[in-house]
Amino acid sequence: MADENSSIIRVENVSMRFRMANDRVTSIKEMVTKMLKRQVEYKDFWALKNVSFDVKRGEVIGLIGRNGAGKSTILKIISGILKPTEGSVYRGGGIVPMLELGSGFDYDLTGKENIYLNGAVLGYSKEFLESRYNDILEFSELGEFINTPIRNYSSGMLMRLAFSIATVVNPEILIVDEILSVGDENFQKKSHARMMELMAGGTTVLYVSHNLDQIREMCNRVVWLENHTVKMFGDVKEVCDAYRL
Ligand SMILES: Nc1ncnc2c1ncn2[C@@H]1O[C@H](COP(=O)(O)OP(=O)(O)OP(=O)(O)O)[C@@H](O)[C@H]1O
């Protein structure tokens, strides 16, 4: 049996380099020609430098930092969407990432079809999704719209669908990027309550927010990213107080 205090996620010396073309090209043809002639110059940009922290089973970890500090990038690496340039990530459980609105969805399919598509992408069986379908539909409050292609949904409706799928399946690890600040007030309250329920039930959560009050209320420990590296990691009050200064 797993040790209660064992790490479910370990981020070890992770660095991420994005390579960007320096030249401004006006067409794909020009780009290909330049690439073939090896005339394209690249500029390296390190979005993360030597980032390390661990997450224990059942913990709620807050991620804070100014715009561009690297929060979304580290979440994508932990989720396996991006591969780090250096370093490694250990994951000891199934992850449900809620990162970019609509990722994992097909806009030509209905809400219902997307529940099965998104659920399959996350690794859940058709039978399991069938058993959860009514709960997902009810939580999403989409009603008849569930049978409409999601390209007709508003961003709030998409968010409700994504949040409902991600949380009704009871993930081992839930990764949430600022989701609670989207949607109308009523759904915000409901999703906040749902997050609290999941946390009480032992789901490990990684949570990015610019709302320090929410971080203080929900998290066990906090990672503060600054200038693409960890500035501070640990006690919620200590890190949030230092960040506010
Ligand atoms: N695919 C990419 N190609 C090039 N640069 C990128 C790419 N993705 C992110 N970056 C850059 O990496 C840096 C970190 O971005 P990231 O989105 O992780 O920041 P963030 O802390 O989540 O910011 P915010 O609070 O604004 O969401 C930024 O400077 C961003 O421009």
UniProtKB/TrEMBL annotation:
GO cellular component: membrane
SMART domains: AAA (SM00382)
Domain ABC transporter: 9-245
InterPro entries hit by this protein: AAA+_ATPase, ABC_transporter-like_ATP-bd, ABC_transporter-like_CS, ABC_transpr_TagH-like, Bact_Polysacc_Export_ATP-bd, P-loop_NTPase
Keyword terms of this UniProt record: ATP-binding, Nucleotide-binding, Transport
UniProt GO molecular function: ABC-type transporter activity; ATP binding; ATP hydrolysis activity
Protein family membership: Belongs to the ABC transporter superfamily.
Name of the protein this chain belongs to: ABC transporter ATP-binding protein
Species the sequence originates in: Anthropogastromicrobium aceti
Taxonomic path: Bacteria, Bacillati, Bacillota, Clostridia, Lachnospirales
